[in-house]
C-alpha cells in the first residue's frame, strides 16, 4: 500500500499495508515515502454557529461584541439551516482527516435548544466517519438557576456539561454547583474560561480548586484560559502547579484567540492571546489544540483542517512539531471519546502527507495529502 514512510512517533521507515480494514506495519529499507499521521481530532468546535460569518453585520472588536452578534443571528436558525451548515463542516473535517470531534452547543435558556437535537441526529448519521460528541454551553449564572434540568437532558443524551465562566459574581459558589451537577448526573465537564485579557479573571483558579477537591482529574476540560497570560508570574505558576496536580486539561484555540484577543481596529495587536500552555504542560497539565470557531462572528476564517490548526499553534507559539502532535491526534481523540492511533493490527485509518518530516509538513501547507479510512483512500473533492 505505502512503502518508505515515516510514522509520527516511530523511528525509521515503514511499509504499510491493510487487509480487512486492519493495518499491518513492517520496517522498510525504502525512504522518501512521505509522512503518516493518525487521524486528527478536533476537541473544541461550535457546529451550531459555523458558516454564518457572511450574515454578520460587521467584524466584532471584542469577545462580547461577537457574543451579542451571534445571539441575534441565532434567532434566525432553523432545523434545515443548522443541519446544512453542520453537515458542510463535518464533511470538510472528514475530508481533511479528522475522525473525532467535540462540538459545543449554545444552551442559553432552560429549554433544550434546537441545535442540540439536530446535532445529536447528525452524530448518529456520521458515526464511523466523524465520531461527534456534544457539550452543552451555558452561562454560568444560568446553570446556577436551571442547571438540574439542563444536566438531566445532557446526561440522557450522553453529552458533556459545559459553562461559560468570565468574572462572574459569587464565582466559587457557582462553579461548585456545576461540579455538584456533574457528580449527581455522572457527567464530565468542559468550561469556556477566562477568555479575555483581564488579569482579574479567576475562573481557572476556581475550577482547578474544585477539580482537585473532588477528584475530578481526567474529567474536566478547560478551553481558552487567555487571562492567565497577563497575570503576575507568581500567580500563574501557582495556578498551573495546582492544575497539574488536579489533573486538569487545557484546550488552546490558536486561531480564534490570536484573532479576537487584543483586537483593536487600526492597531497591531501587542498580545497573542494564548494561554501559557508551554508552562502549563511543564506543570503537568495536558494540552490540546482545536479549531474553536470557524467562519462565524468570532472568527471569519477556517476550514475544519486540523493540520492548519497545528501549523498555527507551532508558528504562533514557537513549538517543536514533534513534541506537540498528540494535541491534535491521540490525546485530543481520547477527550472526544475515541481511540485514534497507528498500531499494527489496528484500524487502517490514517493521513498520508507528501512531506519528509513534520517540519516539512508544517512548512508546505499545499503539499499533497491523502486520507485513508478502513484501508481505503478517500476519493472525491472536499465539500
Amino acid at each position: 500500500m505505502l512503502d518508505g514512510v515515516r510514522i509520527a512517533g516511530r523511528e525509521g521507515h515503514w511499509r504499510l499495508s491493510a487487509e480487512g480494514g486492519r493495518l499491518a506495519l513492517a520496517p522498510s529499507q525504502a525512504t522518501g515515502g512521505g509522512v503518516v499521521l493518525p487521524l486528527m481530532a478536533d476537541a473544541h468546535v461550535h457546529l451550531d454557529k459555523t458558516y454564518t460569518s457572511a450574515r454578520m453585520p460587521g467584524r466584532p472588536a471584542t469577545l462580547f461584541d461577537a457574543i451579542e452578534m451571534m445571539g441575534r443571528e441565532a434567532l434566525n436558525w432553523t432545523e434545515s439551516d443548522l443541519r446544512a451548515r453542520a453537515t458542510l463542516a463535518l464533511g470538510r473535517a472528514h475530508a481533511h482527516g479528522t475522525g473525532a470531534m467535540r462540538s459545543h452547543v449554545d444552551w442559553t435558556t432552560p429549554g433544550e435548544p434546537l441545535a442540540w437535537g439536530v446535532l445529536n441526529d447528525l452524530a448518529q448519521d456520521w458515526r464511523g466517519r466523524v465520531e461527534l460528541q456534544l457539550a452543552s454551553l451555558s452561562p454560568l449564572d444560568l446553570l446556577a438557576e436551571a442547571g438540574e434540568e439542563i444536566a438531566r437532558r445532557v446526561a440522557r443524551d450522553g453529552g458533556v456539561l459545559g459553562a461559560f465562566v468570565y468574572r462572574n459574581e459569587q464565582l466559587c459558589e457557582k462553579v461548585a454547583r456545576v461540579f455538584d451537577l456533574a457528580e449527581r448526573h455522572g457527567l464530565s465537564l468542559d468550561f469556556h474560561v477566562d477568555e479575555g485579557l483581564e488579569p482579574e479573571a479567576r475562573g481557572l483558579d476556581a475550577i482547578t480548586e474544585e477539580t482537585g477537591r473532588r477528584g475530578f482529574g481526567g474529567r474536566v476540560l478547560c478551553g481558552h484560559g487567555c487571562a492567565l497570560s497577563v497575570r503576575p508570574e507568581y500567580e500563574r505558576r501557582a495556578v498551573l502547579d495546582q492544575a497539574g496536580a488536579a489533573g486538569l486539561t487545557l484546550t488552546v484555540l490558536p486561531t480564534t484567540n490570536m484573532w479576537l484577543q487584543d483586537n483593536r481596529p487600526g492597531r497591531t495587536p501587542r498580545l497573542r492571546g494564548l494561554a501559557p500552555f508551554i508552562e502549563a504542560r511543564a506543570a503537568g497539565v495536558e494540552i490540546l489544540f482545536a479549531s474553536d470557531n470557524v467562519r462565524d462572528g468570532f472568527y471569519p476564517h477556517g476550514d475544519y483542517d486540523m493540520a492548519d490548526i497545528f501549523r498555527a499553534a507551532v508558528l504562533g507559539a514557537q513549538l517543536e512539531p514533534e513534541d506537540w502532535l498528540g494535541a491534535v491526534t491521540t490525546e485530543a481523540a481520547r477527550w472526544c471519546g475515541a481511540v485514534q492511533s497507528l498500531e499494527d493490527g489496528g484500524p487502517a485509518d490514517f493521513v498520508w502527507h507528501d512531506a519528509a518530516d513534520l517540519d516539512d509538513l508544517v512548512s508546505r501547507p499545499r503539499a499533497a495529502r491523502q486520507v485513508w479510512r478502513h484501508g481505503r483512500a478517500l476519493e472525491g473533492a472536499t465539500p
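The radius of gyration is 20 Å. The mean pLDDT is 97.
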